[in-house]
Amino acid sequence: MGAHSHDNIDWDAHLDRLRAADDFIAPDITQVIGRLLRPGDRSVIEIGAGAGGTAAIIAKTLASRGDGGRLTVVDTAEQLLNAAGERATGAAGGVEIRTVRADAADDTLAEEIEKAGATPQADLVYAAFVVHHLPDQLAGLRRLARLVKPGGRLAVVEFGLQTRVLPADIGLGEPGLEARLLNASEQWFQQMRAEMDGSVRLPMGWAKAMTEAGLTEATSFSYLIDRPAPLDDLGRAAAIRQLGMLRRDADERLPAADVEILDQLLDPGSEHYAGNRDDLHYLSANTVHIGTKPA
Ligand SMILES: C[S@@+](CC[C@H](N)C(=O)[O-])C[C@H]1O[C@@H](n2cnc3c(N)ncnc32)[C@H](O)[C@@H]1O
Questions:
Q1: Which domain of life does this protein belong to (predicted)?
Q2: From the CA of 230, how far away is ligand 1's center (Å)?
Q3: Distance 219 CA to ligand 1 centre (A)
Q4: How far apart are CA 182 and CA 195, in angstroms?
């Protein structure tokens, strides 16, 4: 059996959702990558690339600088990996793109990258929303730090503030529905982490964890995904996807009345379908944590 994730999630089944999300946030991620890639950076390893939207932006940014460049994409999910490889290859000429099916929770990560014919060190190692899917996140950071060239940087993107798409009072049920949904989602997240085999807590902030992982100059910045109401079709679809994510085991965690309303918001046949509302917005803040490998 090949590499697999540890979180009980079939990531390949999320291809369409991840692809749509990539398209929605492409302008924001283009800015993040522009800010992260330093002028001399020629090589990048991306861990847990999803459908490859960011990989394509990295490849394009490297290509725009001329002089080649190298991008290695690592993931446990085979279909996602293929999709990411294709998307990155299609986005940029002259940049060497490699895909490696490997597990970021396995200490053989660097060897697996090397075995696949790619260089196991890069100027920038980028991992967005994947370290929290590893049983031992600090061990994960240490493993990723080993993939960074001396003088290079590890960038880990994690949640900043929870995504908001609904008005505080949607006119159905009790006000504050979204806050209750987000609370349930946080419980789901903690359970997902607790149920991983070998799950270890990370009782510290990310910048401190970067330092613990042997990196220096730990710093962070956050970026907003800020799409005010009224949303266009892309934004509305993103808001519906977000509500769909909040439906995930809502039955077990929320009052039946809230679940019923959420189902109406998600049902295109319902008079209360959220896709027909002109007061949805999309506001999210994510944080990029950066550490430097001592030269
Ligand atoms: C939440 S998605 C994030 C995708 C993308 N980075 C983004 O920001 O949209 C998590 C990604 O990490 C991958 N993944 C999960 N566990 C992994 C592991 N142990 N090693 C490598 N990749 C993993 C999944 O297959 C998926 O591509």
A1: Bacteria
A2: 31
A3: 23
A4: 20
